[in-house]
């Protein structure tokens, strides 16, 4: 089932949309913390976003731009500010469609379903991994944390991807080395140690401390 994130500060409208989309078999969530929309987005990992322009703290254009830094997920703007300037602005900021308020729920569902079909007919899934505010982009070698972007090496990116995919579990050094170099040939274990040390230092530079935990004699984990 597709997951839809609703970024709308009018709780009445948000809940109506939430319940109606759920009745069509979609998994829905409404944002409630409008200062940390990106964290909610990353944690929920939706297949489509519905977003209003007028929001507390930062407007919909801002959050659309922030989402576009880490994901190409479809975004539909829903707003009563439906003049040509706002429609053009929404599309230029990365939106895929615009629905003017007030709107018919049948039209909303039709547009959502059409955009989901166009986006996921051939590729299905999301392109980020998130844990404790750390957002790893699977489409390039980058990471976002509290508005800071880190460019990672191929090995650093692969290490984090493996650990985040298995978060809460201990990943052995042998498994990490195999995933990094994808060979049964002998690889000096010190090479992995050096890569882990460099990655930890890079994470610490943006305030991500004690993220990768060493389990002595076992391997590494992200808890």
Automatic annotation (TrEMBL):
Q: Which GO terms describe its biological process?
A: regulation of DNA-templated transcription
Boundaries of every Response regulatory domain copy: 3-116
Q: Which residues carry this modification: 4-aspartylphosphate?
A: 52
Spell out the Pfam families in the cross-references: Response_reg (PF00072), Trans_reg_C (PF00486)
Q: Does the keyword Transcription apply?
A: yes
Single GO MF descriptor? phosphorelay response regulator activity
Limits of the OmpR/PhoB-type domain:
126-223
Q: Which UniProt keywords apply?
A: DNA-binding, Phosphoprotein, Transcription, Transcription regulation
Q: Which residues bind DNA?
A: 126-223
Q: Which InterPro entries match?
A: CheY-like_superfamily, OmpR/PhoB-type_DNA-bd, Sig_transdc_resp-reg_C-effctor, Sig_transdc_resp-reg_receiver, WalR-like, WH-like_DNA-bd_sf
Transmembrane parts of this sequence: none
Superkingdom, natural source: Bacteria
Task: Write out the GO cellular component annotations.
Answer: cytosol; protein-DNA complex
As for what it does, the entry says: May play the central regulatory role in sporulation. It may be an element of the effector pathway responsible for the activation of sporulation genes in response to nutritional stress. Spo0A may act in concert with spo0H (a sigma factor) to control the expression of some genes that are critical to the sporulation process.
Please give the name of this protein. Answer: Stage 0 sporulation protein A homolog
Q: Which organism is it from?
A: Acetivibrio mesophilus
């Amino acid at each position: 089932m597709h997951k839809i994130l609703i970024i709308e500060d009018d709780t009445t409208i948000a809940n109506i949309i939430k319940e109606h989309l759920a009745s069509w078999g979609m998994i829905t969530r409404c944002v409630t913390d409008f200062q940390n929309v990106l964290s909610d987005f990353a944690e929920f990992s939706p297949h489509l976003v519905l977003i209003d322009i007028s929001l507390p703290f930062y407007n919909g254009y801002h959050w659309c731009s922030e989402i576009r830094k880490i994901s190409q997920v479809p975004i539909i703007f829903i707003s009563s500010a439906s003049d040509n300037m706002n429609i053009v602005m929404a599309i230029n900021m990365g939106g895929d469609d615009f629905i003017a308020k007030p709107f018919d729920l049948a039209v909303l569902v039709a547009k959502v379903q059409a955009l989901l079909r166009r986006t996921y007919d051939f590729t299905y899934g999301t392109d980020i991994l998130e844990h404790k505010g750390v957002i790893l982009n699977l489409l390039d070698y980058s990471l976002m944390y509290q508005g800071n972007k880190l460019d990672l090496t191929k090995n650093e990116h692969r290490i984090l991807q493996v650990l985040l995919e298995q978060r809460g579990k201990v990943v052995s050094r042998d498994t990490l080395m195999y995933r990094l170099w994808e060979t049964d040939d002998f690889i000096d274990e010190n090479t992995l140690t050096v890569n882990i040390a460099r990655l930890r230092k890079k994470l610490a530079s943006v305030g991500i401390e004690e993220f990768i935990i060493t389990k002595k004699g076992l391997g590494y984990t992200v808890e």
